[in-house]
Automatic annotation (TrEMBL):
<feature type="active site">
    <location>
        <position position="378"/>
    </location>
</feature>
<dbReference type="Pfam" id="PF07859">
    <property type="entry name" value="Abhydrolase_3"/>
</dbReference>
<feature type="domain" description="Alpha/beta hydrolase fold-3">
    <location>
        <begin position="116"/>
        <end position="262"/>
    </location>
</feature>
<feature type="signal peptide">
    <location>
        <begin position="1"/>
        <end position="16"/>
    </location>
</feature>
<feature type="active site">
    <location>
        <position position="348"/>
    </location>
</feature>
<feature type="domain" description="Alpha/beta hydrolase fold-3">
    <location>
        <begin position="307"/>
        <end position="381"/>
    </location>
</feature>
<dbReference type="GO" id="GO:0016020">
    <property type="term" value="C:membrane"/>
</dbReference>
<dbReference type="InterPro" id="IPR029058">
    <property type="entry name" value="AB_hydrolase_fold"/>
</dbReference>
<dbReference type="InterPro" id="IPR017157">
    <property type="entry name" value="Arylacetamide_deacetylase"/>
</dbReference>
<dbReference type="InterPro" id="IPR050300">
    <property type="entry name" value="GDXG_lipolytic_enzyme"/>
</dbReference>
<keyword id="KW-0378">Hydrolase</keyword>
<comment type="similarity">
    <text>Belongs to the 'GDXG' lipolytic enzyme family.</text>
</comment>
<protein>
    <submittedName>
        <fullName>ADCL4 protein</fullName>
    </submittedName>
</protein>
<dbReference type="GO" id="GO:0052689">
    <property type="term" value="F:carboxylic ester hydrolase activity"/>
</dbReference>
<feature type="active site">
    <location>
        <position position="194"/>
    </location>
</feature>
<dbReference type="InterPro" id="IPR013094">
    <property type="entry name" value="AB_hydrolase_3"/>
</dbReference>
<keyword id="KW-0732">Signal</keyword>
Length: 408
């Protein structure tokens, strides 16, 4: 009986591992890796199996001409419309023609509330208002804030700078109409995870130089992607096979956003897309030397330099624009940025992007609150209360954001 019970317990995990392995082979992905230190590794294997299975089925549907792999992925990830919330007023609106969803606490307030612009993750390719509904409801309820979730246009149909422009336009509209929503002009925050963290950083930099608008109170960047110059930083190799974001997919998403396709992905991964003089120029900001040694102990190997390919650079040279890669902004802009909260995860290819930006902000006198999930992985907060795939570490991360908001 004990053996039978043990087999029943292990069977789903074995099937999940098999499904993930088959899907990885079908998709031509590198071997994936579930580090023992990650939060609930068995559950993460199940999530991985679902993700890879979805990708494999999407590839089949694309080959049969029924729909594209990206369209199918969006359908699976879209989430479902939730019912009424007893503590929140929720309405779908448009700010400067950009779809948004506004969450307002029903409880009376002694004064004006803080306002939060939330930009969702998903590699600029996936994600929607419904996908992040539970996260935004939680932020609004727990921090007693007005939250505006922004549905920016997605790649590859809408290339850079479409997503950035939508987020900026929605933010400007909100800041010009704060009184209508009972929001304190001195307490407006931009927030985003992953690609949304990229967009929040870019919007924050733009608004820092806008004297016609109130100053942002803070920016909250949750495992943000902030540069596309170097996909060989320590975290990109240490976590290259850790879900939910593989190293190759990080470059794939950046190229989809930039160009609407992922041609030259291999050259970008190898670093052949940036001229030597430009790489030298940005080395003061994008370099393993700026990452604390304790993050390099998991076996970082120096790579052989690759030859620069001018034709590739011509197709990706906008990677050097701060609105696309905020880590490359000049010090004159960075030192004007508001108080910042940065969340990083140990088992995340984008970990070092966050660490490098933390250093840049601190070097320019910006106050930074840093929260590091030692057992976290990329995308863990987006799984909050999601179809049974929620992780305790993700809840801790989300609560750290709420605590930061309450401290403002």
């Amino acid at each position: 009986a004990l053996l039978a019970a043990l087999l029943l317990l292990l069977l789903p995990l074995a099937l999940a591992a098999l499904a993930a392995a088959l899907a990885a082979v079908l998709l031509g992905l590198p071997s994936y890796d579930i580090p023992p230190g990650v939060n609930q590794p068995a559950k993460l294997r199940l999530v991985l199996a679902v993700l890879l299975g979805t990708a494999a089925l999407g590839r089949i549907l694309e080959k049969t001409g029924l729909c594209s792999q990206i369209t199918f992925g969006r359908y699976v990830r879209q989430g479902r419309k939730l019912g009424l919330d007893p503590k929140l007023f929720i309405q779908d609106l448009q700010f400067n023609k950009v779809p948004v969803r506004v969450y307002q606490p029903k409880a009376t307030s002694d004064g004006h509330r803080r306002g939060i612009l939330f930009f969702h993750g998903g590699g600029w390719v996936f994600g929607s208002l419904d996908t992040y509904e539970k996260v935004c409801r939680y932020l609004s309820r727990e921090s007693e804030s007005v939250v505006v979730s922004v549905q920016y246009r997605l790649a590859p149909e809408h290339k850079y700078p479409a997503a950035y422009e939508d987020c900026l336009n929605a933010t400007v509209h909100f800041m010009r109409n704060l009184e209508h929503y009972g929001v304190d002009p001195a307490n407006v925050i931009v927030c985003g995870d992953s690609a949304g963290g990229n967009l929040a950083a870019a919007v924050s930099q733009t608004l820092a130089e806008r004297p016609d608008l109130p100053k942002l109170r803070a920016q909250i960047l949750i495992y943000p992607g902030l540069q596309a110059l170097d996909f060989n930083l320590p975290s990109y190799h240490q976590n290259r096979g850790v879900p939910l974001l593989f190293r190759e997919r990080a470059a794939f998403f950046a190229l989809q956003y930039l160009n609407g396709h992922a041609l030259h992905m291999q050259e970008v991964l190898e670093g052949s897309h940036i001229p030597p003089d430009m790489r030298l120029k940005y080395r003061k900001w994008v370099s393993p030397d700026n990452i604390p040694d304790k993050f390099k102990v998991r076996g970082v190997k120096p790579l052989r330099p690759t030859d620069f390919i001018a034709e590739v650079y011509e197709t990706v040279k906008r990677f050097c624009e701060p609105n696309l890669c905020p880590l490359l902004a000049e010090d004159a802009v960075v030192h004007q940025l508001p108080e910042s909260f940065i969340l990083t995860c140990e088992y995340d290819v984008l970990r070092d992007d966050g660490l490098l930006y933390k250093k840049r902000l601190e070097d320019n006198g910006v106050r930074v609150t840093w929260y590091h999930l030692e057992d976290g992985f990329h995308g863990i907060i987006s799984l909050y209360d999601y179809c049974g795939f929620s992780f305790p570490s993700g809840k801790r991360g989300l609560d750290s954001v709420v605590n930061f908001l309450k401290s403002l």
